[in-house]
Amino acid sequence: MARHRFEAYLDKVFGFSQLVSALPEGRLSPRHPWQKVFDAVFLGAAMQIPSLLQIEAECQSGALAKRVGPISDDTIGYALQRESPESVFALGCEIARRLKRNGVLRSDWSRGLLVAAVDGIEICSSFTRCCDACMQREVEHKVRGELRTDIQYYHRIVAVVIVSTPFPIPPGIRFQKDGETEVACAIALLRDLVAQLGRRFLDLLVGDALDLQAPFVNEVERLGLGWVFTLKQNQPDLLHEAERLTTGPPASVQSESDQELRWGHLPPVDWPVAARLVRVVKTVRTDHQRRVAVSQDGSHWKKGKSDVALESTNFYATNFELGAVPPLFIHQLSRSRWRIDAEVFQTITTDCHLKHAAVHQSTALVMLTMIRLLAYTLSLIFYQRQICSHARRSRLTFHEFAKRLAYWFVASSGDTG
Ligand SMILES: [Zn+2]
Description:
Helix content is 40%, strand content 27%.
């Protein structure tokens, strides 16, 4: 059987099959070794197959029949529940390390800094299906037209995603425990990542206003990271002080045809609840839009266009020493945070079925989610570097490419060489 292009690439760049064969076996003398189960789930996830039953069907007589061979969805679920999430987490970190060594994480705008964003997402919410590790809450909802209150089960994961790169790369996720805050979960994830990747792997962390809390900021600094977080109402004293100090004219202005950006950089501002000073950057963006307006002229209504200026003000707090770097850089850093939601969370939930619990059992769900994330990352790297960069004409979408992967397996099974 000819080697599949995708797997040949992963072996050449990451030595991937060797890394997978080194994963520990969690079951005693299993009929199907862990590597076979892992391959079934990983390749199934790379093809963006939503359910274990469908993976079973592909292994039985579909695209994975020659490559993996028969295995039941029960066997896959049983194995996922008993293998070690830590080893798959470490595998994800090893991939990130090799990406950095190969220069894939370089970017042209971030001044040599590796910037990561942190954010959370909810998955697998259900009123009926739950497991030992579920979080729960009371929710009012309509059942057959009647409003009632029920317990809803759900999971939340926190992800750290490298966003300074040409395409975002998530080195790791962590499931939030019941009763644990998102910030506590993010701290635990960052500690695990730094333990695996070392203190000098990431340079800067960007996050939203919820991350701007003294315990989180202190921990991020203890891990040797710089940070840029949005400053909003949840830190009223700091915001008030920043507003008071920026009533004067902006330090700099940048204008384009339909947009104007003004910004200013403050001297260190006192942050009383954290008993420290932080740096603050303020930006004011004005978007000029032409809108259709309808007005009355005597007995007639007429349509006309008028200019509308939409203004939005943002404050960012940071420990980054700007030196000769313009404060606009802080604004750019903070904007890069949107990629975690707009690109990563969007794709892994719509194309890669992350919200759909193909197996809803504590450890099995963690394993499935981690393997899906790894499959997303590696298939995205292959897609970006082998498909997009070589395509001259009509380019496949990421989803079309995933379906093409399945076809390649069928095609390479037909070879006798
Ligand atoms: Zn659950």
